[in-house]
Description:
- By secondary structure, the protein is α+β, with helices and mostly antiparallel strands.
- The chain has one domain: Alpha-Beta Plaits.
- The chain is about 15% helix and about 35% strand.
- The strands form 2 sheets. The protein has a 5-stranded antiparallel β-sheet with strand order 1-2-3-4-7, with no helix packed on it. A two-stranded antiparallel sheet has the order 5-6.
- Strand 5 and strand 6 (about 80-85) form a beta hairpin.
- Bound molecules: iron/sulfur cluster (2 copies).
- The site of one iron/sulfur cluster (SF4) has 13 residues, from helix 3.
Amino acid sequence: xxxxxxKNSNNSAVDIAPANxxxxxxxxxxxxxxxxxxxxxxxxKGKKEDVKIDIIINYxxxxxxxxxxxxxxxxxxNKEVAEVVDISKCTKCNICxxxxxxxxxxxx
Length: 108
Ligand code: SF4
Ligand code: SF4
């Protein structure tokens, strides 16, 4: 069974966060493997409804297009790979998915 990483469990980050720092409370990230691909799956409540964002690690070339064009600041770069930082802002506009040149990111 794949190991689950709940970002909420990082209490040390919460402890040192300034008073006005908004800690995302809804994101869960799971690493899955399918057809020899490694997929980072983030799930949670978006701005309007539940959302799932998959990023295929093997395909992501770190071009940062999805990060630059996401109108809500949902994504960041983690080293050379895109990552979901706050799924609660996602409106499921699918811009990231349409613009990714490598079909690495999908939003449902
Ligand atoms: S647009 Fe696609 S390839 Fe570029 S950083 Fe985002 S997920 Fe990776
Ligand atoms: S679907 Fe839209 S809001 Fe959600 S991560 Fe992609 S670009 Fe950002």
